[in-house]
Amino acid sequence: MSRSRTEGNDADSTTVLSALGNKYSAEILCAAGTPKSAQALSTVIEIPIATCYRRIEELVDAGLLTCEGRQLSAEGRRTNIYRRTLDEIEIDFSDDEPEFSRKRRTEAKNRLQDQRKD
C-alpha cells in the first residue's frame, strides 16, 4: 500500500487524520456523495453552520472534499457546492507513519449519482 496524494494538494497524514478525527467530519463526507452547499450539509446533519464551514475547510485542506462550483441559493445568493473526493479510505498504522489507500470517486460515478437525484 502506498501513501496516497491528493490532487493539487499534498495533504500529509497529520492533516488527513486530524480532519477525519473531528466531530461531524464523517457525517459531512457521507452526506456529500452528491453536491451540497454548506447550508444543505448543516441542515441534513443538524449542526451549526459555523461548525459546518470549519469542518468543510478542514476536509478540503485534507483533499477529502472538493468545491465543485457555485449555484444560486433559494435566497438568490451564490453558494459553493461541495462533494467528497473518495468513497473509501484505508489507514495502515503498521509503519512509523500512517499510510493511506483511497478509492477515489470517478467522474462517471458522480454523473450517475447526479442523474439519480434528478
Automatic annotation (TrEMBL):
Question: Superkingdom of the source?
Answer: Archaea
Instruction: Return the annotated region ranges for Disordered.
Output: 97-118
InterPro entries from the xrefs? WH-like_DNA-bd_sf (IPR036388), WH_DNA-bd_sf (IPR036390)
Give a Pfam family name.
HTH_20
Where is the sequence biased in composition, kind Basic and acidic residues? 107-118
Q: What is this protein called?
A: Helix-turn-helix transcriptional regulator
- Tell me what organism the protein belongs to: Natrinema zhouii
Ranked from the top, the taxonomy reads: Archaea, Methanobacteriati, Methanobacteriota, Stenosarchaea group, Halobacteria
